[in-house]
Write a structure and sequence with these properties.
- The complex is a heterodimer of chains A (503) and B (421).
- Chain A is of the alpha/beta class and 503 residues long.
- Chain A has 17 helices and 22 strands.
- In chain A, helix 14 runs parallel beside helix 15.
- Helices cover 66% and strands 4% of the residues of chain B.
- The two termini of chain B are 33 Å apart.
- Classes of the chains: A alpha/beta (503), B mainly alpha (421).
- Chains A and B meet through helix 2 of A and helix 1, helix 10 and helix 11 of B.
């Protein structure tokens, strides 16, 4: 199928998310759409998939103009989408998910389970995508769930597949498997629109790369273009992709976890007997696919989740089961994973957010009332030092961009004496420029002797920042390795293979 | 997953063991060895449809209740040591019924030479069946709405509306068919209001529901005073006639309970079977459940989420409206406030029944029996306050909702407004 977009424009109020976008995907082609978060990729894909209606422009399939009232129309014309957040009903079986909306039925609307199973078996075999039709989706690993999404699209006779950031939740091995699937689908004549901001993957799998920035098509380049050129096209200026740092000079252990067990919200052991040490002057990067207990581990350290058993000490003091306030008071800096939920209060001012961890303490308060002058002076100082772009320190935090909101948290946490910094997904959702900035701040702190624990599901980030890399899988540490270790090796550890070269 | 469900099942098992011990010790051993309890099974009915005569059963109270208690303990212990593939709730229901039986045996025990007290088991079940039927209508309404992702807390209001209109129509037309049509229409209309406010304007569904109940209870009191009291011909009082099914009514106990009932009762049975089948076996049901679990996923395959929700909330309203008419038909006429929270107990039965029609039936039977007994305990001269038994449905609900006996898992998008785009 040949998909052509002509002058697609989509506005939300005053924001133009897509500005006259032209794009053509040829049959059998893997076409990559490369752009930063907020560049307008997802909006464009939602337009193609019929979830949004363009304000201007046309969508042509095999040179015939199309109008999609909803995504059902798009599916009927042969467009399938694999969403970043899977559109699967967790409690349904694979078969039920795949046939949903296109169910084979017998008399009286009765579902024909046998035929559904048969259809799925047929499609699985045709495209070599094995999966048990009777498995319940929520019990499948993420990689297999994604396979179900692809199967669902193919079962609806999709000729063009849109893959929206498909690698974000996968281990390196699962990413390799996905790329193999993409290549074989393209070889069988399907067209693929691959959305990503990860340069390595784009170069590895695409036939052609279209770069978009701020809603506009910037350029169309071959996948052989080198990474730094792609990055500067994407960001609009030269960026450095590596973090400059000297060899670490680790000191005494500061943060120590000894045989820690933490339960998740369902009562299962999300952290399963984990022991770790973070030394002064080093960055320990905790790698792992999202949802393997990293979140619970960090919450336990920060006093936000009870510790079932084991011990957590900070600078020799026992902080097991401490309240969040006690944990902060003993020298913990915490950049939380979900910054909107735990890091900032969107409706409060920048100045108030900058003292959120110490609102009752001198000099920001005395005798039960706040010292607003001190709060403002502190804010003016930090906004200058950390280059936070805001119209005023009294502006509500919600008026700042995501990158600047994150800078507010970084500034707040780093502006007081710390012994250890725990940063969870510190650059998630940030543009390349802000990532560079946050990384530089973290390395600087480590150079000054701070113990740093970074939790990230981005392997690039883990490898760039970590002085040592601990890999977590299913609540356990499967290995602690040197950053010079190969990506494949770390990938295997992320998938649960235990480390032979465990320190 | 498995650990959690095993924990839940064990919680239920432990609760069953506790009930068994209470039965064996509290109702059994303290009764005194000379106590006797008598059960009869014959309704006071001399018509042609009366069931085959069964004699009176007289048992020593101590032995009967100790045996019942041990049986309950055994059922509970089974859940403590293994997790059956299905039927956990059915086992719990059985234990609850045994508990009520033991309570009755204890209540009517006599130590004199001749039994002066009886429990008429059939009469108790027939009496409770009216309440149970109304609860089943209500919880089926809840199943229809909540499976599609809309919380219908207005069931109580739909009961009131259905009962009020049902009484007026039944009194004027002398035909319960027209009363059912009118009551169902009122319930559906109230469902439409709930759907419109919560789907179009994304209002909080709980608040809209509570507002509807409050409005209906006020409105019905006002209209009762202004219309029904001055014109009593519109609220004449009529019980729906029983439509006995030939032969089947001859079965002892079950005959009068299941096959000598009003049309509403048979309609309820058809609805349970129909909704159960449609929800789990048909394309319609798959789509409804997809909308209630993950509306975005449903929308991406072209299912009209808002349309499905409208249809189900209106349909649920019709079912609850029918429940109101059925209640009125079992009471004879409309009285303000006489639904007294049945709609909320139906919601509790829905939760206890884990959003399944079959579970809602089991829960409604337990709740209906405990309500009936609490209303009628004086008859048996039981030294337990009626309020305590009346609390049973709420206590069980609190235990279920708080996860004490088995955590429940509602549809994932239940009560979550859906925005397109």
């Amino acid at each position: 199928m040949r998909l052509e977009l002509r002058g697609i424009t989509k506005r939300f109020g005053t924001l133009t998310a897509n500005d006259h976008i032209d794009l053509t995907v040829e049959p059998g082609q893997i076409h990559c759409l490369l752009g930063e978060n907020g560049a307008g990729k997802s909006t464009l894909m939602n337009v193609v998939f019929g979830l949004l209606h363009p304000d201007e422009g046309e969508i042509l399939i095999d040179d015939v103009p199309q109008r999609f009232a909803n995504s059902g129309d798009a599916v009927r014309r042969g467009i399938g989408m694999v969403h970043q957040h899977f559109m699967l009903v967790p409690v349904f079986s694979v078969a039920e998910n795949v046939v949903l909306g296109f169910e084979p039925t017998r008399r009286l609307g009765r579902l024909d389970h046998a035929r559904a199973r048969e259809e799925i078996r047929h499609t699985s075999q045709q495209f070599n995508l094995e999966v048990d039709p009777d498995a319940i989706v929520e019990n499948l690993p993420v990689g297999l769930q994604q396979r179900v999404e692809i199967l669902k699209a193919l079962n609806h006779d999709a000729e063009l597949l849109i893959l929206d950031e498909p690698t974000a939740v996968l281990t390196p091995q699962e990413i390799d498997a996905l790329m193999a699937i993409m290549r074989s689908l393209a070889a069988s004549g399907k067209s693929i629109l691959f959305i990503s901001h990860k340069l390595k993957e784009v170069r590895a799998v695409s036939d052609v790369v279209t770069v978009i920035r701020q809603g506009r098509v910037i350029d169309q380049v071959p996948p052989t273009t080198d990474e730094s050129t792609l990055a500067s096209l994407m960001v609009g200026r030269d960026v450095s992709l590596t973090v400059a740092k000297d060899v670490a000079a680790p000191g005494a252990p500061v943060l120590e976890l000894d045989d820690v067990v933490v339960r998740d919200d369902r009562g299962l052991a999300a952290v399963d007997h984990v022991s770790l040490q973070v030394h002064a002057g080093e960055i320990l990067a905790l790698a792992g696919v999202q949802g393997n207990g990293q979140t619970e581990l960090v919450e336990a350290i920060a006093g936000m989740r009870p510790v079932e058993s084991g011990r957590i000490t900070l600078g020799g003091r026992d902080i097991t089961g401490a309240t969040p306030r006690a944990a902060l008071d003993s020298g913990l800096g915490h950049i939380p994973e979900d910054r909107h939920r735990y890091g900032v209060v969107m409706s409060l001012s920048v100045a108030d957010n900058l003292v959120l961890n110490a609102p009752r303490r001198a000099p920001f308060a005395a005798h039960g009332s706040r010292n607003l002058a001190a709060v403002r002076d502190n804010a003016e100082d930090l906004v200058g030092r950390f280059d936070i772009r805001t119209t005023s320190v009294q502006a509500p935090l919600s008026s700042l961009s995501g990158g600047n909101q994150q800078k507010v948290i970084v500034a707040r946490e780093l502006s007081r004496p710390l012994e250890v910094l725990v940063a969870s997904q510190p650059t998630r959702g940030l543009d390349v420029g802000s990532i560079e900035y946050v990384h530089r701040q973290i390395v600087e702190q480590r150079n000054e002797g701070l113990a740093v624990l970074i939790v990230s599901s981005e392997l690039d980030e883990v490898m760039a920042l970590g002085d040592r890399i601990a890999v977590m899988h299913a609540g356990q540490i499967t290995g602690v390795v040197d950053p010079s270790t190969s990506r494949e090796r770390i990938g295997l550890l992320m998938a649960g293979a235990t480390g032979a070269d465990h320190e | 997953m498995n650990t959690v469900s095993r924990l839940r099942t064990r919680g239920i098992g432990a609760f069953m063991v506790l009930l068994g011990l209470v039965t064996a010790l509290g109702f059994g051993l303290v009764s005194g060895s000379s106590a006797r309890s008598s059960l009869t099974f014959n309704p006071v009915d001399l018509s042609a449809s009366a069931p085959v005569h069964v004699g009176t059963l007289t048992l020593p109270t101590v032995i009967a209740n100790v045996v019942l208690g041990l049986l309950m303990v055994a059922l509970g212990v089974e859940l403590l040591v293994r997790v059956p593939r299905r039927g956990v709730m059915a086992r719990f229901g059985a234990v609850a019924l045994l508990f009520f039986l033991a309570l009755l045996l204890w209540a009517v025990r006599t130590t004199g030479p001749a039994p002066i007290n009886f429990v008429n088991v059939t009469a108790v079940l027939v009496g409770a069946s009216a309440l149970t039927m109304v609860l089943i209508f209500g919880s089926l309404s809840g199943v229809l709405c909540e499976r599609a992702g809309v919380v219908n807390i207005a069931i109580e209001g739909q009961f009131i509306g259905g009962a009020f209109i049902g009484s007026m129509v039944a009194s004027t037309t002398h035909d319960f068919f027209f009363a059912a049509v009118a009551g169902g229409a009122v319930g559906g209309l109230l469902g439409l209001v709930l759907a419109f406010l919560s789907l179009r304007y994304l209002s909080d569904q709980i608040i809209v529901g509570v507002v509807l109940v409050t409005m209906l209870s006020g409105l019905s009191s006002y209209l009762n005073l202004q219309v029904l009291t001055p014109f009593p011909q519109y609220n004449t009082g009529n019980l729906a006639p029983n439509l006995p099914i030939p032969l089947l009514t001859k079965i002892p106990v079950l005959g009068p309970v299941l096959f000598d009932q009003t049309g509403f009762f048979y309609l309820m049975i058809l609805l349970v079977a129909g909704v159960s089948y449609a929800l789990f076996q048909t394309r319609w049901g798959l789509r409804v459940r997809a909308v209630g679990e993950h509306p975005q996923a449903a929308a991406t395959v072209g299912i009209k989420v808002v349309g499905v929700r409208y249809a189900n909330v209106i349909l649920g309203g019709v079912v609850a409206g029918l429940g109101g008419v059925a209640f009125m038909a079992s009471q004879g006429q409309f009285q303000p406030g006489y639904t007294s929270g049945l709609g909320y107990i139906a919601l509790a039965a829905l939760i206890f029944g884990r959003w399944r029609p079959s579970g809602a039936v089991v829960a409604s039977i337990i709740f209906g029996l405990s309500l009936y007994l609490s209303y009628n305990l004086q008859t048996f001269q039981v030294p337990v306050s009626t309020e305590v038994l009346g609390m049973v449905p709420y206590l069980i609900t609190i235990a279920v909702v708080s996860g004490l006996i088995g955590r429940v898992r509602p549809p994932a998008a239940d009560g979550v407004p859906y925005r397109r785009d």
